[in-house]
Amino acid sequence: MLSTEHQHIVKSTVPLLEAGGEALTSHFYDLLLTERADLRGMFNSAHQATGAQARALAGGVLMYAKHIDRLEALGELAGRVVNKHVSLQVQPEHYPVVGEYLLRSIREVLGPDVATPAVIDAWGAAYGQLADMLIAAERDMYATQAATEGGWRGFRPFRVAARIVESAEIVSFHLAPVDGGPVMRPAPGQYIAIQVTVDGAPLRRNYSLSAVSDGTRYRISVKRDPGGVVSGFLHDHVNVGDIVELTAPAGVFQLRDAGRPLVLIAGGVGQTPLMAMLEAAVAQGTRDIRYLHFVRNPEVQAFRERVEQLAAAHPRVRFGFFYDEDPSVPDGLPPGRVSSNVLRDMLPPDRDADVYLVGPGAFMASVLQLLGELGVPPDRCITEFFGPHQEMAIG
Ligand SMILES: Cc1cc2nc3c(=O)[nH]c(=O)nc-3n(C[C@H](O)[C@H](O)[C@H](O)COP(=O)(O)OP(=O)(O)OC[C@H]3O[C@@H](n4cnc5c(N)ncnc54)[C@H](O)[C@@H]3O)c2cc1C
Ligand code: HEM
Question: What integer is the mean pLDDT of 147-163?
Fold first, then answer.
């Protein structure tokens, strides 16, 4: 437990972090990843380049400082971080390294007048407390994954059993474990991390599972990101019979079995976890399902026929595809743009639905705003983001 004095100092540095938190964590990442090249493959290079990772960590630290005297308020944040860390194999021995670089960055960015020995001391103790909490939760999650039927620890080799071109820019990989054993069944919506070696460097990325697993294999569906290292490698160099390494499924974005109508809203490749949810909900057959896919054009759209088949076979499924490049402009709006009318048409009149949303950040922000205006309660809107969750910075 932190002393009252340490708590006080940490809380009093919140305004400072709010003003300069991102500069601090950017500097921290520069230092860490320049000096500790061995950790670089764990981090997504683009998330660092765009500053998203720095913002996420700044958000985590800031949120922590605000709630230092009631850590239970961090529940949601901690769950996401723990799942992401476990998926990417963050280990207890990494924490002191990160802590050392964080404190060094505080010193170098804030300078000796602000980062006095007392401030550094308080933050050292606070970081230690947060690290202990995350390490304990991560240890539990690693143990649970290993104890689950078909589960495992660390990276497990998987062979590419099938490679299916789904659209002009999305390829699916069906992955079966080389050891021939069962695989743990993920909750619909969860992701794995894949590790591949590109130019001698092992790189890790998360991919959502895009189908319900039958307990023997997984499917991921990867969009080629222009200039993207891992997605480009998977598209160009990974074929049937090749071996990749996977960590066990993780992630707090999971289909809730609430029995309410289900509304799935995808932007682009954000459809992948929603496809697993759609299939699971259809198999369950107990709720009305709406599937909305906003995408540039039919050529880049994956799983169009699969959604049409499911809807044809199951009367409780309704769907809509909305193309940015569709020449028929609905109600005067730019084509494909999410509108209040489109959403209203898919929501139950009493708004009593669970809405799952995945897509690019700006898309998600505008959908969330429209859902709020239409009266969908915020706790019914469940999101996944294919990068560090920036909502975390909202405290
Ligand atoms: C939970 C989760 C689930 C995901 N699920 C999926 C999924 O189902 N399908 C899917 O396709 N993706 C998914 N992703 C995204 C995936 O993890 C990768 O981020 C994505 O494939 C891009 O990785 P990459 O290595 O190809 O690109 P990177 O090499 O990381 O680059 C990404 C982009 O950033 C640009 N970039 C890279 N470095 C720099 C730099 N230094 N400066 C400026 N720009 C730069 C690149 O040109 C490229 O456009 C998911 C991510 C998360 C976190
Ligand atoms: C108290 C310490 C830490 C805090 C508060 C913290 C916080 C965070 C947060 C908020 C995210 C974003 C999660 C998301 O939105 O998906 C994240 C991701 C991540 N963290 Fe940590 N973290 C800590 C320690 C560590 C350590 C010790 C490591 C190991 C090197 C680490 C490695 C990572 C990686 C690899 C990611 C994903 C990055 C990416 O997407 O590129 N973290 N962390």
Answer: 98
